[in-house]
Amino acid sequence: MGSWSVRGRTIRGPARVLDLLALGLRLLTSKDCVSAELCRTGAPDTHAMVATEHRLQPYQILVSDDDKTCRETVRDVLASQGYRTHLASCGREAIQVARRQFLHVVIVDMNMPDLSGLETVTIIRREVSVAVPSILMSADPSRELMRQALSAHFDSFMPKPLDVGSLRHVVEEIIRRHYEGEL
Predict the structure, then answer these.
(1) How many domains are there within the chain?
(2) CATH number of the domain that residue 149 is part of
(3) Which of the four pLDDT bands, split at 50, 70 and 90, describes residue 183?
(4) Average pLDDT of the chain to the nearest whole number
(5) Are residues 30 and 65 in the same domain?
(6) I need a surface site. Which of 8, 24, 73, 167 has the fewest CB within 10 A?
(7) DSSP-derived secondary structure for the chain
(8) Are residues 19 and 97 both part of a single domain?
(9) CA dihedral of 50, 53, 55, 58, whole degrees rounded to 10
(10) 158 and 118 in one domain?
(11) Are residues 69 and 105 in the same domain?
(12) Are 34 and 78 members of one domain?
């Protein structure tokens, strides 16, 4: 695992070249940045890099659930905390959103009509962003499903119906762990 230097700070982990270019452009055009320097010392982790720009815009969170009420409830809870949410009603739509928008966290329902939440996040991580933190929701919180989520490296598992306080806490903890402590 390599590292990158962004504005004099070291970032570690894997990343895609397009993610680096996008971040470099954002840094170069931001009002808070007089100059930006990206110095390659290895392979960067763009999720850590985006922590530098979190002060410029809200964290971006994808919520994917075929249940419109649940999707909109999660959106409202997160928006009240200052997060920017992107909604998807199925796995394929979630993947399309992930291709267009840098995401800090992905929240998916396990049982969607086209792809499961596990399949959706696996594809997003393979094709778009290797290290995106993810939360799996399910109305069927079986031990087997929790084991699968753990094996697939989900950051958290949340049973439905969702507890709003727990949702806020889990998202805040993931943001803190993945972004605020990195730089």
Answers:
(1) 2
(2) 3.40.50.2300
(3) very low
(4) 78
(5) no
(6) 8
(7) --EEEETTEEEES---HHHHHHHHHHHHH-TT-S---EEESS---HHHHGGGGTTTSPPEEEEE-S-HHHHHHHHHHHHHTT-EEEEESSHHHHHHHHHHS--SEEEEES--SSS-HHHHHHHHHHHT-TT--EEEEES---HHHHHHHHHTT-SEEEESSPPHHHHHHHHHHHHIIIIITT-
(8) no
(9) -60
(10) yes
(11) yes
(12) no
Domain that holds residue 31: 3-53
Predicted confidence at residue 13, as pLDDT, reads 44
**129 and 154 fall within a common domain:** yes
pLDDT of residue 180: 83
Question: Average pLDDT of 141-157?
Answer: 96
Percent of the chain clearing pLDDT 70 (strictly above):
67
